[in-house]
Amino acid sequence: MSVSKLTALAILLSGAAWQASAATAEVTWSNVDNYSDIRAANENQQKFEQRIKDRLTEHFQELAAKLPESQKLTVNVTNLDLVGRVEPTYGHSGAGELRIVKRVDFPKINFTYALADAQGNQVSGGDVVLKDMGFDFGSAQARISRDDLYFEKRMIDEWFQKNLQQG
Known about the structure:
Radius of gyration: 20 Å
Keywords: Signal
Largest sheet: 4 strands, mixed
Strand content: 25-35%
Number of helices: 4
Strand order of the largest sheet: 1-2-5-6
Order of helices and strands: HEHEEEEEHH
Number of domains: 1
Helix content: 25-40%
Protein name: DUF3016 domain-containing protein
Pfam families: DUF3016
Number of strands: 6
Signal peptide: 1-22
Structural class: alpha+beta
């Protein structure tokens, strides 16, 4: 086997080993019916809620993969207020609803978390209340992003980088 193939194989295997040993995240969602705003606009409410929960759970899991191996992040989301608000619309096709984003309808998320080491000892944890009242300032990236949870994910990213990410 050539040196370049061996090098490529070593890089591939080290990447696979890193992925296998990455930290994990377990995310639960409590009392969703009492959340400030997880309201669907013109789609099935249950499917909308499930999609939002799945996508934010996946985001927490992607962030946890950046933590040292053998750690476990446990998150319990207790409240969510999506950016914007659902308002009625009227047009040629009839009445409907649309999520309208205004400066006063900033995103918020509340959750508790615990970060445990390989032995199950809590390394850090607590109650977290995130809100981004300036979400629309400097939001050129949000305008080109096709992610409807851009602002909520950005809040979580900033919290993660400030409180959990090593280095």
